[in-house]
Write a structure and sequence with these properties.
Structural class: alpha+beta
CATH architecture of the largest domain: 2-Layer Sandwich
Helix content: 25-40%
Distance between the termini: 53 Å
Number of strands: 20
Number of domains: 3
Number of helices: 15
CATH superfamily of the largest domain: ATP-grasp fold, B domain
CATH topology of the largest domain: D-amino Acid Aminotransferase, Chain A, domain 1
Radius of gyration: 22 Å
CATH class of the largest domain: Alpha Beta
Bound molecules: ligand MV4
Oligomer: single chain
Shape: globular
Length: about 450
Amino acid sequence: MFQKILIANRGEIALRVLRACKELGIQTVVVHSTADADAMHVRLADESVCIGPPPSRDSYLNIHQIVAACEITGADAVHPGYGFLSENAKFADILAAHNITFIGPSGDHIRIMGDKIEAKRTAKRLGIPVVPGSDGAVTDQKEARRIAAEIGYPVIIKASAGGGGRGMKVALTEADLEVALQTASTEAGAAFGDDAVYIEKYLEKPRHIEVQVFGDGFGRGVHFGERDCSLQRRHQKVWEEAPSPALNAEERARIGGICAKAIADLGYSGAGTIEFLYENGEFYFIEMNTRLQVEHPVTEAITGIDLVHEQIRVASGGGLSVKQEDIKFNGHAIECRINAEDPRTFTPSPGTITHFHTPGGLGIRVDSGVYSGYKIPPYYDSLIGKLIVHGRNRVECMMRLRRALDEFVVDGIKTTLPLFRDLVGNADIANGDYDIHWLEKYVAKEE
Ligand code: MV4
């Protein structure tokens, strides 16, 4: 087991990882920018190293500074959290070259999944159902027209180096195809330095359902069920739940089994998420994330398993603490992302939190790095906390969530709490009846 872990992140996830390390008796080091000197993760860590000025590229993304911090403090492993360097293959490789363990998959696995064409080809080879489309990159118009005619319109053009919604263009008919292909490729080249694009059938009203997987480092794979993350705005998840209101136990076991086997065959190590679009009872792979995700607590709530403990165990060579048959799904969990944003326009609202009071009681978890008097710096993303609620079933979970939202107080800044108070009272949400476009339409109506 590791003696000392360096946490290369900030905010609620830095605190989340710190807690796991403390429970496992592992010493902690955090790195921080000058803007985060007063942050909770800096206060609670055993050691801290200031690695640079506020902009992320000079601090949380500065690989050389982070490696130096490991050398100075004698850290034997790095937990990257999510975002920042968590899916940076070069970072994983550099740490390995310094005999420091990256708590995550190999650089090569990160690289495969970071290239969306390669990821899709790999998924298909491993028996994961994918969205019908081109077999690889598409360059010429004639080929594009042939593929689009074959799969049928509408189609979507995606950048291979994109992901998370960046660099996509929809073509409703053949008349749109030429411009869509041209602009998608040009924009991808400018944004990512890679102009490769591919074509897929455009699914019009899917849900976003993702499967939590783990490779144990010994060639075995397991799944921890799915999360429904369909409630998004501008590709930012807002509300996530597990299990998906759209799936039954058979569908869960089937897609989970396919994913677990794929992870085993890939020889993948650590936590991963296989993302699908789900429409008319069918799953279609879109991407794989090779990190711990923001919404992992809903999976923890329904399985009772600490996923950060498992990441640390696997990275240290100790394997998973559970086998597939030990992973049982209990009740229902919902996560609300509390952002420092205007709840109508979603414009960031940094500033000082004058009063912060979190809800409590059975089935309530709040993961947050802020406190009364904390000044939110303007340099980073606007997530200030997550409210995760668990109940024996979805109805109980929703009742408890409504009560928890009533107790939550964040004064001094605008937050997305009022949006959630509206959502818990909405009939579609109560019925679990929503797709990936539902929230955008709801917000547009309310304006
Ligand atoms: C799609 C799609 C429809 N058809 N692919 C957006 C983020 C990226 N991960 C994939 N995305 C989409 N891919 C096909 N073939 C619709 C989206 C999409 C979306 C997906 C998940 C959650 C929210 C979304 C919002 C708009 C579009």
